[in-house]
Each structure stands twice: as structure tokens, then as C-alpha cells.
Queue: 3 jobs
Job 1
Amino acid sequence: MKEKNNLVITIGRQYGSGGRMVGKALAKEFGINFYDEEILTLTSEQSAVGEVFFRLADEKAGNNLLYRIVSGLKPQLGKPSMDSDIVKPENLFRFQSQVIKELAQEESCIIAGRCADYILSREESNPGLVKIFVYADMPTLVKRTMEVDKIDEKEAAKRVKKINRERKEYYRYYTGESWEDWDNYDLIINTSCIDLEQTAKLIKDYIKLRGIEI
């Protein structure tokens, strides 16, 4: 009998691409949990560190971005420290990484952002891991942000650029790799010319082709 593995979908997503909405819709359809900001609450509860610290550091690079880029350094994914450096960004990332790995081991789920693709790729065996990246052209990102966030075009463009820059720097800081390097993902989807329902269908078809069962 074929062994059933947890289906764990990680979704890297540009702000405004619809990646989060697609993830939530897929999770509902599959009957599994979707984790985005929920990761922050879970990590806070497990670490006994205030959630506000995780929110302040959420998907943002630490304080030494330039130094890390030049030197090629990145935080180790070992056990988090409980000492005086407990709330340093690198240590908060280790707490968060620990929670992400535990979720992937315990259940089928969908995890948005937070370098989950990188973290889980370093586990010994993850046959049910599917790494997705969702992006779009700038006009589409701005339009969707205007619609979802209820803001004007100028503010939407500003928000898209700021948040995507932060996500890019965050990924580089903690992985030493490029957020937009397609080699890091199994499936890359441009949502500029397809709607979110079609995007979800593409992901479902890919999972089926991989032979992964829920």
C-alpha cells in the first residue's frame, strides 16, 4: 500500500498577486489549514515571546542586511536561544522555522511566505512538499491592491513596491538566496492573464500530476 505523505504547499507571493487568496481557497477546498499570520500567533504561544515582537519582524530583513549580502552570511536554522538574544530577529526566525517544520510534520497544510519553501527544503524527506511562487506584472499588482485594500492607485503602487522590496530583502537575509530565483520553486504562476480560480486549478492539476494525495 502506498504510504500517504502530508501535502504541504508553500506559497511565495508578490503583494497584489492574489497568492494569499488562492492559498486560502485551496485550503478550504482540500479541508486543510492555511497559515499566514497565524504562524506568528502559534510561534508566540510556543516560545512564550510576545506576539508583537514577531509582528514587528514579520517578513522583514534583520539589521545587518548589507553585511550579510556582502559576506554571504545567513542565520543557522538550529534551535532558538532562550538567552538574552531571545528577541533578536535571527532568533525569532529560528522560533518561526521550528513551528513551520513541526506543522509540516504533523499535518497537510498551506503556508504563505516566511521562507517556508527554504526551511522545508532542508528537511531530510518531504515528498509531499510543493513549492509555489505567484507573481504578476506591476499594473495587475496595483489594480488588485486597489481593489482589496480600498486605496487609490498612487498609494497602491507605493504599497506594492514597499512590501515586495521587504519580502525580497527578508528572503535574501535569511536564506542567502534570491526570492525571485525560479530554481527555488516547483511551480511559478503569473496571474497577470489568468484569474485566481484558474490559478488554483493550475496548482491542483500540478499536485495531481505529482501523484500526491490529500
Job 2
Amino acid sequence: MDTCYRHPDRETALHCSNCGRPICPECMTHAAVGIRCPECAGRRTVTQRAGFTMPRTPVLTYGLIAANIALFMLTNRIGSGGGGLSFGSADLNSLGDRLVLYGPSVANGQDYRLLTAAFIHYGLLHIAFNMYALYILGTAFERYAGPVRFAAVYFTAALSGSFGALILTPHSATAGASGAIFGLMGALFVLERQRGMALLQSPIAGWILINLIFTFGIPGISVGGHIGGLVGGGLAGFALSGYGRGHMAYGRLGVLPVLGVAVIVVASVAGSLAVAG
């Protein structure tokens, strides 16, 4: 039995017809299209993507896309040849080389690479695919869960993705936002399960399956980075849901959920430093 998202001590079988949150009789508002929670009852307009209600403007997602594009322009030599997963020709300049994930450099004290690598891309095709996925998944998640939870999942998954990449390929240069994006998929999957969506009806499960096929089927893609990001993002989403007892997207963030995310971050960084080089 679900519990009201505003009153966790009250069990209920009622759900908002707009966002799907469980609500108790005290919180519900009758509308022409069903019952609504207090927030949805007061909203004039909403939009939908990937099955989630999206009342917020995804400012952080847009900012991340802008930052990735800006760093792509600063770190790629367009037209000079080379570059993995490129469209046309591109390769990294000296700045890009100093920001990608590389085990020996991390072991040598350049631990900032664990995060900066998530903003570096090898060529136009690489960044185009990642930014498209970030736009679709990021706007859905941020609008539904808010920028704080979105940031917690995204950056946690970026770090856990670096950990996964270093486990499998510590001596290969790795870059890209895909680890963090896989983390968003993991967290969105947790959200879908919380809403009672059947696995075979899950659009996010389809996204995960297709991207895993690409991950294992195309040479040059970081398997460890993608799996690490998926696991880290899913675990962060689970922690933010109160370990399955609450709702990831609503209510105040308690100490235990924040602590859980912090543990994932610390474990990812400590594990990366342990396996680097």
C-alpha cells in the first residue's frame, strides 16, 4: 500500500490523475478529469515527455548542454583528423587531453578528471548523440524531480561512471557525458517502478536496452563507464526515494537519502583512486 506523499504515515490507494503521486483524502481535490494533488490542482499548464509530468523549466539541463557544447568548441580541433566516434574529423587539443579520464594521471593527483571527463567529447557525432539524450532524459527528469535531485543523480552517475571506466580500462583515455546520462536512465527507471509501471510498458527500459546494445556492440564505447553510470544513477535515485519508502521526486530531502547519495559519491571517488593507474 502506498503512503500519501504529504503525509507519509497515512496509507492510501488514491493517486493524482495528473502526476500519479499517492494522496490521502485530505489532500485530494476533485477535478473534471479525476482527483488531483494540491500542486497539480493549482497548475494551469503542464507538458509531458517520457510519461512524466513536467511543470518546471529545466534550467540545469539547458546549462549542462551549453557547458558541454562550449567545452567541445574549446577542446576539439575540428577538421584536423582523428577522434573516436566522430562525424567528419575532430580530435582533442592539449586542453582536452588534460581533462579526459586517464588512470595514470588520476593516480598522479589529477583526480579532477573524474568529473571533467563527463564534459569532454570526441567529435561531432559523439556530442550530438549525448546532447540529444541529455535533452530528452534531462528535461523529463529535472521537470519532474527538480534541479536539486537532478543534479544529485547526474553528478553522482558521472563519478560512478568514471569508476566503472577505470575498473575496465584504466589505461585508456575516456570521455563523454554518457555515464551521467545512463545514470539518468537508471533513476528514471526507479521512478517508473515507483509509479507501478509494468516493465514491458516502460519507455525507459527500452532506452536502457537499446543503449546497452550499442554499448556492447560498437567498438570504442566505454562499457565500464556506461554500466557504472547506470548503477550509480539507479542507486542515487533509490536513495532519494527514501530507499523505496517514499517518492523520489517529492517531499523534503531527509538526512538518510542525502547520506546515501554521499556514500555513493565517496565510494566512487575512493574506488577510482584505488584502481587508477
Job 3
Amino acid sequence: MNSVQKTMYIPLYGKAYVSRKGILLRDPKAEEIWAAAGFPLKGKSKSKWLAYYMGMRSGVFDSWAAEKMDADPTAVVLHIGCGLDSRCLRVGTRGHCWYDLDFPDVISERKRYFGETPEYNMLCADIRDASWLSQIPRGNAIVILEGVSMYLTSEELTRTLAQLTGHFASVRLLMDCYTEFAAKASRVKNPINDVGVTQVYGLDDPRKLERSGLRFLREHTMTPDDLIEQLQGMEKRMFKRLFAGSFAKKMYRLYEYRTD
């Protein structure tokens, strides 16, 4: 498993951490997997502040996915770069065909903890190679692209999104991105450095990806007030300063796109 794939353990730790504390996210599967497969993290990757942020980010993606699934009961759900995330359990398939995608080594590890069903499937895929789409029925798609875009160049990301819009009748997509400033800063100071990743990419203008056939719809917050309110006292105040203020927005953004 390469260094990029090892980054999946950082959000896994965060979700297990907040789930054990009983705040932000209920994720017993993350607790189970971390207890069985987690390895010692160092530096900022094991920070409680980052764990809170990972929990909140996942909660926002969960809520968005559930809303879109309820609005379109015929759409397939694609969680691209799923890692060891248990969103399929937290949200539930709700009668949809749900596909979790990641590199072969990741899916091999994932299959130790998750089983496939008629509605839930795991696919080995490098999303930069469009051949995996032949395994997915055409129609409408709800696409979760969490913790992925920063590992793709602008050209790779645009081409990947264009492959999605070319395959499906309609696409609804939520994607987190580093800013260009964050990508530069990440070369020297980022939790992912602790697992060996030093090269990432940023995006400042969300409309730049409209060349793919997607239309930028809106920006979301990754730190909603109702989730921040679950923190207590000094932790709440510190989190707001570190992760919910103007500096955080200069680093990390959450964009929603659609095709129609």
C-alpha cells in the first residue's frame, strides 16, 4: 500500500475517535476497524482537532448523500476513493445501487471488514482510467468525491469528471478541494506528510472544472454550526479559531456540482 493509500487511516482514526466520544458521528464500524487495523499515527495526523474536523466533514457528506438519494430513488451512488469509510452503513443504501471504489490494495483491505450485497458493491479502480465505468449502469448518479481531488492534477481531475458526465444521464457531485495556497503549504506542513505524502494539488476557482460538463452549483461549509455546538467550552472556541474561521477557508473548500 503506497503513501497516498495510507492517508485513508487519518480520517478513519478521526471517525473512530469522535464515535468513541459519542459526538459528531456514530460510526461503530470505524471503531472496529481502527481497533483491528490502525497503526501508530504521529504529529498532526493524530490531533483531536483534526479528528473533530474529519468527523464534521464526514457528517456533511453523509447528510448531502442522504438528501440526494431521497430526492432521486433511481440514481446509483458512487463513493470514489472510499478507503475504509463506512458511509454505506451510516447512510444506508436506501434501495439504491451503491458502489465503493478505490485502488485494488485498498479494496482488498476493505473486504476484510465489509461484505457485498445485491445493492452494495466494491470495485477496484484507478478513476483516471475510465474502463471501470463499464461496470456501472447508465442513468443518474450521485457522486461522493471525498479526500480525492487533491491527489489529482487539474488535467486529471477535469478528465475524470468529464468521463463521469459522459457516462451518466445526470450527475450530482460533492467534492472537497485544497486551495492552491494549501497545496503549496502542504509540501512542508500537512498531516498527510506523516504518512509520506508530499505532492498535492489545489483548486481556487470551482468553475474551472466546468470544462468537464459539470456546472458549479454552490459551496458548502465543512463545519456547520450545529456540529460545532456539540463541542464543549474551550474546545469549541479553539475549534472555531482553527478550523471554522477565515484562515481555514483559505485552505480547504467544499463544492457541489451538477450536470443539469
